[in-house]
Write a structure and sequence with these properties.
six-stranded mixed beta sheet; globular; alpha+beta
Length: about 150
């Protein structure tokens, strides 16, 4: 992971900021987000080191956020374990934290996931459990061999 010694991480010990991942999402936001249907980009680092990117698919019926599209895009590429994710808004909005629904889904899929949050110059990496403390656990998803 690309990180600088100046990156403090967090008190939870989540670790340094993956700047290469932020740059990947920041590149996708202005180049692939067009109009009102695609306004957010997400990037995720797979456990094998690959970076996967995605954009949201807005629809008035509740289309998926970029983080949810990222889960599907990663699986389609054979990356079933994500280590770190970040979302970036179009129109230079910078890093945007996941919404509540995305926090729950990300936790259910990847309970040890790192999430990059904060504003430019003050980015930090936190654990998904820090963003959604005392969360509901989707028990059926956690069962082995079910």
């Amino acid at each position: 992971m690309n990180s600088s010694p100046a990156d403090p991480g967090t008190a939870s010990g989540a670790g340094p900021v993956d700047h290469e991942l932020v740059e990947a999402a920041a590149h996708v936001a202005p180049t692939r987000c067009r109009g009102d249907n695609h306004t957010m980009a997400a990037a995720g680092r797979a456990r094998d080191g690959r970076i996967i990117t995605a954009v949201n698919a807005y629809h008035f019926t509740g289309g998926p956020c970029a983080e949810l599209v990222l889960i599907g895009a990663a699986a389609a590429q054979g990356a079933y374990e994500l280590d770190t994710v970040v979302a970036v808004g179009d129109r230079d909005r910078g890093v945007v934290p996941p919404c509540g629904r995305c926090r729950q889904v990300l936790l259910d899929y990847f309970p040890a996931l790192h999430v990059i949050v904060g504003e430019d110059g003050r980015l930090r990496t936190v654990l998904i459990t820090d963003l959604l403390p005392e969360s509901y656990i989707w028990a059926d998803h956690q069962l082995d061999g079910a």
